[in-house]
Amino acid sequence: MAVEAGPGSFRKSKSARFAVRIATDSRRSSARPSRRALPSAAARESSGAPVQLLIDAALGICVCRVCAKTKPLTEFPFRSLKRQTRQRICLLCQRAYTNEWYTRNRKRQIAKARIRRDHHAAQLRSWVRAYLSDHPCIDCGETNVDLLDFDHLRDKRANVSTLTHVAVSWDLVKREIQKCEVRCANCHRRKTAHAIGIYRVRWLLQRPGRDSNPRPQNS
User: Fold this and answer.
1) pLDDT score recorded for residue 36
2) Contact between 151 and 182 (Cβ < 8 Å)
3) Shared domain check, 155 and 193
């Protein structure tokens, strides 16, 4: 004989299923370790480190893997400054390996450096020409990039062309350009001649008709 389930039995079965779910979740959470219960990284490293390494760290010594000599920790470069760990090869062995490696690969490294320098110099020249194309001569308005120069006003470190040729950083080139005004070759030479007062300018200013002094004779 079939018995129909009423609303009360349905509520009881639903509450029972809910209780089983809560019990299952509680067992899972108790089985999963909490983050606070996990040991820290420093504790794991200290507990898992070999005894010999702990003794070496306490005494401030270490054995080089290459030369097998016991040396102070100060002769071993840091592997990580944050974790205060050091490499296991001393500085002298590392320098010897580096020098030997460079001796074997010297020509190849020089060729690579020359390629990088030429590529960077070409980039600098293109950036300088782009700058000159936007800055005509401030005296006559000349816009031909091939005729424009950088006229230093103060604190000259080097010519912009020299800095570009040796392939320095673009920031250094920009700082040098900020000390200059853009002038064409004619205006640049004319301004420099008047500034230093070369003999040709003095003669032009003192030639007959402007001054009673005759043209100076070369001795």
Assistant:
1) 43
2) yes
3) yes
Pick the closest to residue 128 from 152, 78, 162, 103 (CA basis).
162
The residue count of the chain comes to: 219
What pLDDT digit, counting tens, does each position of 191-219 carry?
Answer: 887 777 665 555 555 656 554 444 444 44
The pLDDT value given to residue 163: 92
**Residue 209 belongs to a domain:** no
- Beta bridge partners, 62, equal 71
Structure confidence at residue 84 (pLDDT): 79
Number of domains composing the chain:
2
Continuous H helices in the chain: 7-31, 41-48, 51-59, 91-104, 106-133, 160-165, 170-177, 185-196, 199-206
Q: Mark whether 131 and 168 lie in a shared domain.
A: yes
Q: 64: domain range?
A: 48-102
- Per DSSP, the three-state class of 157 is coil
CA–CA gap between residue 205 and residue 34 (Å, rounded): 94
Task: Kindly report whether the global pTM for this prediction surpasses the value 0.70.
Answer: no
Determine the Cα–Cα distance for residues 58 and 70; give it in Å rounded to an integer: 14
The CATH code of the domain that includes 97 is: 3.30.60
